[in-house]
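Annotated sample (chain length 295).
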Amino acid sequence: MHACGHDAHATIGLGVLDRVLDSDFAGTFTLIFQPAEETISGGKSIAESGVLDDVDFFLAPHIGLDHPSGEVVAGIDDFLAVRQFEATFRGESAHAGARPEDGDNAVEAMAAAVQNLYAIPRNSAGGTRVNTGRVGGGTASNIVPESAFIEGEVRGETTELMEYMWDRAESVLDGAATMHDCAVDIERLGDAPSAHSDAALVAVVDRVAQNTDGVGSVLEDDSLGGSEDATYLMQRVQNRGGDAAYIGVGTDHPGGHHTPTFDVQERDIAVGIDLLAGVITELTGDGGSIVSSER
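Output written by the structure step:
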């Protein structure tokens, strides 16, 4: 079950676009509906497309994030860098009763890998994560399984820490396969770096939020506690001299993100529109280039 607020983000984006069209805005406004965010595979391609290369200010809003209705986070930080992967183990099948010694058990290799992925040492430089979210293999109880797989991910408080986890994970996967006379194919799937919101832009969002109807409290910053490939977009703008901020718009959702009971309060969509339109007005009163990224 996937439910995270992307429909609300799209609605906010269209609402902001209407405001820009109805104003005397004199700059360049680009609205991005970021694809494939949940598989961490859309942000990088957009960043590398060049669409952001003339952008001065980049705004990436997200609704909810466990903040209540009426609360705005002007700048979210502490993104965990992430890399997702799939490892496919290949062994040799055999009759589990008559000739088990003729087989090379791919499920054993997979199980050894799962156990030892979680045994990767922590790092004194910061927080790390590993998860084997989906595993499987084999065909029948009386056959030594010739194939098995792991779909997993590693994360780090910084991109460097994520790379540390990835290097260790590759060693674990290779070692588990070797231990059980199997082969393993390791495929890197989506990934995303860490990022930060720029203080100068956060200050503008904070100031506008203080005067936005429906906003009762404003936090200058907060930690995301997860990963997000809008970080590719943020870094692209920042590396070319622009500023970026990841903004939280609170909503009283009955369930957490990615649960069947997740929902948003529709009034908070209006708050998001008013907030972003206000920030754009303040930033580009004399013309400029701004992007709003809705996911």
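Annotation: The chain has two domains: 6-79+195-294, 81-192.
Annotation: The mean pLDDT is 92.
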